[in-house]
Design goal:
Layout (H helix, E strand, L loop, with lengths): L2 E3 L10 H7 L8 E3 L7 H7 L4 H12 L5 H11 L12 E3 L5 E4 L9 H5 L2 H11 L5 E7 L3 H10 L5 E8 L5 H8 L6 E6 L3 H13 L1 H9 L2 E5 L5 H20 L9 E6 L4 H12 L3 E8 L4 H8 L1 E3 L20 H9 L1 H14 L1 E3 L2 H10 E5 L2 H15 L5 H17 L4 E6 L7 H9 L8 H10 L20 E2 L4 H11 L1
Parallel strand pairs: 4-14, 5-6, 5-8, 6-7, 7-15, 9-10, 9-14, 10-13
Antiparallel strand pairs: 1-2, 3-4, 11-12
Bound molecules: pyridoxal-5'-phosphate.
The site of pyridoxal-5'-phosphate has 17 residues, from helix 12.
Length: about 500
Amino acid sequence: MKYISTRGKDNAGVSGAYAIKSGLASDGGLYMPEYIPRLSLSDIERISHLRYPERAAEVLSLYLTDYTYGELLEDAEAAYSSDRFDGHPAPLTDLGDAGLMLELWHGPTCAFKDMALSLMPRLFVRAVRKCKEERQAMILVATSGDTGKAALEGYRDVEGTSIKVFYPTDGVSRVQRLQMQTQTGNNVSVVGINGNFDDAQNGVKRIFADEQIKSELDRNGVFLSSANSINWGRLVPQIVYYVSAYCDAVTMGRIKLGDQIDVCVPTGNFGNIFACYLAKKMGLPIGKMICASNMNNVLTDFLSLGVYNRCREFHTTMSPSMDILISSNLERLLYMAVGSERTAKYMKELAECGRYALSDEDMDKIRCDLIGYHAEESETAKTIKWAYENKNCLIDTHTAVALCATLRYKDENKAERNILTVSTASAYKFASDVYTSLTGEDTQNDLNALEMLEALTSVKIPSPLKGIGEREILHPESISVCDMERSVKEFAKRS
Ligand SMILES: *Cc1c(COP(=O)(O)O)cnc(C)c1O
């Protein structure tokens, strides 16, 4: 299987290992497989009898044909081992008439990013070897909160790599910031920036495109790569849990093999929902995908109007991992819907004017698969309370945005199919806002919020978050956006 760029220039095709090693294609596009492999119902039936790591190896082997099945299985077994994931890595919860919930936060950092970032560093190290790359890799990450911590945990002390994370100093939750600032490891750097996630992501993209920085790092024996969902190595492990969830829904008796289910995903950079889209294109029986946004509803507007317009007010919400106006992976969807030539044109318009518009015909194609909803802050809070009181289910702010969309979609469309709502973080990562949503009382964003929420609900604080307030701050630094380049160069000399 070869990988080609969404923008069409770099299209002789590269191996899976090369795509994972480099992150971004040389024309600035994102790597995509040259075709989408198929899963038949009998494949799905067979996979349903396997454990999660084996399910992962099955799906990965369809895409990463330059890795052996043995390598993929070994990496998946290590990534989803019981010392990292407590029990099933991606269990389903039954919410009765509200459908099913897929919980993706049982990993080491309590957010769904662990599903990919537990596995990706292992694929990456093999990729470096397969490509006979001798330089050190510096993994550059822009994070809206959860990717940073999950990538730090995945790459810390991994030989041949260092990792540098930029996060918006005032754009993450208290727990998220502490998780990153207290990160241990000899090859890590964590820096806050005085901007929002888009500023961090644009800064990182600028550094990737800067030939002068590239050659300076090269002289130090360092090359850059990415752990963001623009990297194919992030996306392919995310396809696995959709296949796995479908298998489990069949095994539970909620659906029959071959029945379609709808899926609702809380969306920011469009990585998670795009993995679902790929699963559908592979043949997994998925009906509609519901794209749930918070007040930064650029995707809701895109899906209803056919115009992507990032020139709008940026809102800081209680679901910060979705506070994004430029959803990078939408580029992959465009590529599949309209091809590389027009994708390149739209991306140029986005960079130059901040907007692009699709034809009605193209939008009709996209709308066969996707529908968008967004939740206001008050609706998010109400949904947290509703789920706890009616379904005995404690959900975080991001999951609440999705559940709110699920309930609206069901109501408006009289939807008959089962809906799978994707739950992307532990409520304790956003304990303060969850507590306030449940009680109407302010916790002063206090770290006590974790204990207060535990006392209120009797749901245990996940062990990775216990005592987070007492750990030593190792990375207090915060810089201005224009200092990101310098910070990267200095880190390269140090590592
Ligand atoms: C990253 C994240 C999202 C958004 O996922 P994308 O793949 O960026 O669309 C949603 N919820 C949580 C908790 C996240 O960490």
